[in-house]
Amino acid sequence: MSDSTTADDAGRTDASNPLVTVDGLRTYYESEQLVGGKPVKAVDGVSFEIGRGETFGIVGESGCGKTTLGRSILQLEDVDEGRVSFDGTDVTTLGRRGLKEWRRDAQMVYQNPMSSINERMTVGEIVREPLEVHNWETAASRRERVQELLDRVGLRPEHYHRYPHQFSGGQRQRVGIARALALEPEFIVLDEPVSALDVSVQAKILNLLSDLQEEFGLTYMLIAHDLSVVRHICDRVGVMYLGKLMEVGPTERLFTSPQNPYTRSLLSAIPQPDPDVGADRITLRGTPPNPRDPPAGCVFSTRCPFAIRQPEHEELGDEQWAAIAQFRRMIRERASSTTLERAKQRLGMGTQFTPIREVAEDLFGSLTYPEAVEETLTRATELVADGDVTEARDLLDDEFSTVCEHESPQQHEVGNGRSSRCHRHREEYREPGDYLRDAGDYLPE
Amino acid sequence: MEYTPLTERVRATPWPAVVWLLGVCLLVAIELGRIASGLHNIGGAVVTAAGAGYGGLADGLASGGTGGVLTAVGLLAGLWLVGLGVVTATRATVVLRVTDRIPLRSQRLLDGLAFGLCLGVVVGLAVVTGAVGVVHALGDLLQSGVARLAELPTLTARETIPNQGYQTPDGTWHGTFFGLSPALAWGLRVLLIHLYVAAWLGWLWSGYQRYRRHYRQADWTPRDDVVSRLRYHRWGQFGLLIVVLFLTMAAFAPSLGTAPANQNIYAPFSNSITYYDASLGEVTETLVGNANLETRSQGYPGENVSPMTYDRFDRFHPFGTLTNGKDLFTFLVHGARVSLLIGLLSVGASALLATVFALISAYYRGVADLILVVTGDTIMGVPRLLLLILLTVLLGDTWLGGLYNGGVLLALVLAATGWPFLWRAFRGPTLQIAEEDWVDAARSYGQSATGIMRLHMLPYLLGYLLIYSSLVLGGVILAVAGLSFLGLGITSPTPEWGRAVDLGRKFVATESWHISLIPGAMVTLVVMGFNAVGDALRDAVDPQSDSSVADASETESRGGGV
Ligand code: SF4
């Protein structure tokens, strides 16, 4: 962890010998339904490395799978596929005993200090437990170590016998940190360590973590949704969306010149009057899709303002294009609603969909389209009105769908140790940045 | 303030502890004989049960067929459980290292099995080679030592304050304590016993206070809140009072009774009493059985001994007599023992099962949970009375049925049919606890499954355990009484409250109303007491848990709804 001024210095970490290497990691949650449910792809093919002594940040909206990623790396979730190498050993294949040994080296600090420590134990017992589990030397030396740890994280010796009931959130989080440090780990996953705390306390805890990293040579993986925290603390950052790592790169460069369309959107979504941050006016349309049913191609394609279009639609204005995207989204939604829902609707029991003609009028009324497009839209509207929702969807797909919608993008190296997952980095398409400049509407600078 | 072990803290300020321990010694000393004889009895019972159990096992295995297979499976399961316990308690690494080599997910199961089998083999070898004889001899030595202690006089013993005697025409009493009337002597003894119990309770409370003031290092613990909330819970205190009275009754039954149980209830025709026969004009002796025949309560003035009266043999009957002339009070205090024993045994067993199963289903979820849900619901689906009758009749002739006049069997059957009710009450909260981050955190630093269940889940369940156990205990007492009332369960002559109610049923509206009404009222009161304690515990442990009220009453009514 270092300040933002030196964060750019990629040479700080030893890239040739990473501590943690994650390779094609997949973690799926089985659906709760007994039959016919699809698994939730919480983490879907994520690869990255974390160098020794580095602070690697993971950002993303809530529900993007970042916490699951952290827990999967620590083997707290059943990983479905992929490898997690720690210091050269693949920890996904460790046996019970090996795993227990390895847990000494990799710890976690939890988000909510109210529920992450057991209130029926005294602070001393809480911090001592990992030591007992791993048979740390003698009983006396365990107690000594706990006292030492309490002192180190800024608690007083008499707190040893206190119960967490009497503690503030910040103090509890210190207890959690002391517990994570107890076994002298090398690597700690910090799962939103300050997001549940008062703003005044956040800085103190972050400084503590920073000091500890320096003192013990720790490697951190910081999971956060607060971009300012990430920017302040992390050496490198990964941006996650719907189980995929969209972009990875050194913090400052990623924040000042984001490559991936999602990163741009995310950065502009936070009100941050920072002139460095590009693309202030890009807005994220709609909500993230249901992770149970992610889009087929690029996971971001349903909301991407940069999505690649078929050549004949290039000249459409952004507003026009957005209206079409919205229209297709709604029709897709209707098409995927179950038979039961549709039956309910017929009987007037379900939530009523707005009549399609009104929707079309709303979306396209004030816009003009080239003739061919106009015609397709009208036909689709008629099809839906006649009840052929799927046919309408297919028609629209034929006309408008692109590589973004049916092919999952690769992770492209985009220079300076950065990689981004987007088709626009391919030769045949224009880079997101270039595209943006040409499009005019979004021009940030 | 560094952590120091308790022994050191005591060494630093020894006086409060020393004074307290001296008090305990004094309290133990004046009742040493009773405590020793209690231990002696328990030891004897355990040996008998173990012998019967071993005999049953050996028979079962020898008989072959389905019975043999069932016995073998049961034996294996038992060994596995024991092995699991050993593994958890000792965290021995030798066997773990071996089983770790086996590439299976459920290594825990193997650990338990390995340890259990080792244990089984050792015990089996001991039996075969006769090493058991050594254990036997040691046990006998211990038994005889305790038996000698048991002969020491005690403060509250019947012998210290005798209340059985006779009155000569001049009005003087012979054979009683200082020539007091039997009623007074008996009352004195009862008072003394309750004072003794009160002294113990007060001393324990003072011990807790001393510990808090002088030795405890934490200045506050979550239990402090529980205690302080209990201090203002009047309804709970009322319940506690009744429960304490009931427990006293059970614990001190032999000296609370106006006559020894053996003399009055079990073997009246082998014991005799002396009394002053007015027609003969002299002190004569008669068999208790014969005397009982003349003191029966049969519902009309000529043949009735009411509460708080003497019969014509100068025997005092605080609660009157039964239809067969036995003393109702003596019958009831010994009945309390039976009820309590069955209650504790069955609630203990079902609470244990329910807790373990709740922990398992919450921690492992999935298949384990499903199996338990199906099993539990199946048991709950069958009418409980039917199951009870069926099992009691089926197993009545086995060695199990012979233990404690069928009491042990009844307790086990009640436990086997009753755990799903408790388990259902525990499962919800346990599932919630298993979701907590601290459980996950414990996993993240390598705590074992059993360790997590014990340290991070069980403490949160303990409150529920106490609450529901006390609620169910009342239900079990009611159930046992109900079964005896129906003529099932505990066999005559072992005293049981329900049978007293049954005996007096015909005479409720007559002179002999006391036979049914007094025990009936006592059952009601005791059940109420346990429920009040349960309610108080719930309020104290979990002040916000109003939602569980509906749940509790359901368990309670179903627990007792036999
Ligand atoms: S692949 Fe297409 S949809 Fe996905 S981020 Fe790139 S431009 Fe947007």
TrEMBL record, chain A:
Record bears the keyword Cell inner membrane: no
GO molecular function: ATP binding; ATP hydrolysis activity
Keywords assigned by UniProt, alphabetized: ATP-binding, Nucleotide-binding, Transport
Cell membrane as UniProt keyword: no
Record-linked PROSITE patterns: ABC_TRANSPORTER_1, ABC_TRANSPORTER_2
PANTHER family in the record: D,D-DIPEPTIDE TRANSPORT ATP-BINDING PROTEIN DDPF-RELATED (PTHR43776:SF7), TRANSPORT ATP-BINDING PROTEIN (PTHR43776)
Family to which the UniProt record says this protein belongs: Belongs to the ABC transporter superfamily.
Protein's UniProt name: Peptide/nickel transport system ATP-binding protein
Source organism per UniProt: Halovenus aranensis
Lineage: Archaea, Methanobacteriati, Methanobacteriota, Stenosarchaea group, Halobacteria
Automatic annotation (TrEMBL), chain B:
One Gene Ontology cellular component annotation held by this UniProt entry: plasma membrane
Transmembrane segments: 12-32, 39-57, 69-92, 113-138, 183-206, 238-256, 338-363, 370-396, 402-423, 461-492, 512-533
Span list, region Disordered: 542-562
Keyword annotations of the record: Cell membrane, Membrane, Transmembrane, Transmembrane helix, Transport
Mode of membrane association: Multi-pass membrane protein
Domain ABC transmembrane type-1 residue range list: 336-534
Pfam family, one: OppC_N
Cellular localization per UniProt: Cell membrane
Main subcellular location: membrane
GO BP annotation list: transmembrane transport
InterPro entries per record: BP-dependent_transpt_permease (IPR050366), MetI-like (IPR000515), MetI-like_sf (IPR035906), OppC_N (IPR025966)
Gene3D superfamilies listed in its UniProt record: MetI-like
PANTHER family: D,D-DIPEPTIDE TRANSPORT SYSTEM PERMEASE PROTEIN DDPC-RELATED, OLIGOPEPTIDE TRANSPORT SYSTEM PERMEASE PROTEIN APPC
Sequence similarity: Belongs to the binding-protein-dependent transport system permease family.
Full protein name: Peptide/nickel transport system permease protein
Source species taxonomy: Archaea, Methanobacteriati, Methanobacteriota, Stenosarchaea group, Halobacteria
